[in-house]
Amino acid sequence: MAKYKQIADRLTKRIILGGLGTGSRMPSEKELAREFDVSVQTANKALAILESAGVVDRREGLGAFVSDRLNPRDLLSSCRFTVSLVLDANVQGLPAADGVLGRFAFNLQHVLSQSGFSWDQVSRLDGPEVLERTAESDAFVTVGDVDEGLLERIRRGTRPCVTFNRSVPREGFYSVMVNPDVMGELAGRMADVGHRRLLYVTDDQKKQIYDLRWREYEEAARSRGLACERLVLPASRLAAGTVTPEDVAALRRSDFTFLPNDSLAIAFMRLLERQGIRVPEDHAVCGFDNSAAGRHAAIPLTTIAYDILEASNVVAETVRAALQHGNPPPLATVDAWIIWRASTETPSSGGGPG
């Protein structure tokens, strides 16, 4: 695309997003030339395109102004918006979790394409690529615990950032969370069937979403008089079975364990087997994500599920509302439910759609 057309496109997006309101003065040719590092003639051609389209009015001796007759929403069909999807690089290494995120990304792309905007792409990125490949992005969706510094760097100007499964209580960020209240239900159901020593195993001490679920889980457990302990077991150690005596002691102190994704939970069940601990007779296990691997494991895995299409819809609607300055809520939640299978002794009832 010619440079002057690119500038016209960028200015049109500013108008749509509210950065330039109807009746407001446009940057002058000289200001645009400096901003976009082009000649004054190129900047003038960009404004001429907008004038011919009825987007701006030029007034002799005063400059160009966004037309008072313009409804910014009428410009949506003339622009292609780019939404970049930024995944937590650590999560990408977990095959089962990655499959869930892959379905989420696919559904999100489909929903965005049907949303009334002409969406250009959904990019699947990790940290080092973000700044290089997203300079022209209009909005971001991040999944998981994307690095705090990276969040700050991708949130430039007025571009909104929607975070999935991470709460960022700052202006310009909108969070969509899988409802952590399900953790309280899980602890309560385990207490009801006789479990008294609950364990929460994560592979990373720093993941914020793990902390949110842990707080709900611990509060619900302790409110029922249950022992509740947290253990960090890196995925590599879980897979290799290289646990310390302290780790084994924690396993034997507990009779039920929650793990934050099915991939970790399956590795954990293998670890219990190597320690001579039977599932579910001696120790019950629950994962998260409702992956195919969990459904077809040697001992089918009890898990927490959520509707990926619903999550995609909520994220897409939040992106759209943010871009249109529709004031989306800073935090939205997606329902979750427990699917009971053989890795716990709980009867298979009371869950949501499986």
Descriptive keywords:
single chain; 6-stranded mixed sheet; 354 residues; disordered C terminus; alpha/beta; Rossmann fold; Arc Repressor Mutant, subunit A; 6-stranded parallel sheet; 3 domains
What is the CATH H-level superfamily of the largest domain?
Response regulator
**Could you give a short account of the major beta sheet?**
6 strands, parallel
CATH topology call of the largest domain:
Rossmann fold
CATH C-level class of the largest domain = Alpha Beta
Structural class: alpha/beta
- Count of DSSP helices? 13
Strand order of the largest sheet: 4-3-5-6-7-13
Produce a short descriptive summary.
With 354 residues, the chain is of the alpha/beta class. It has 13 helices and 14 strands. Helix 4 links the parallel strand 3 and strand 4.
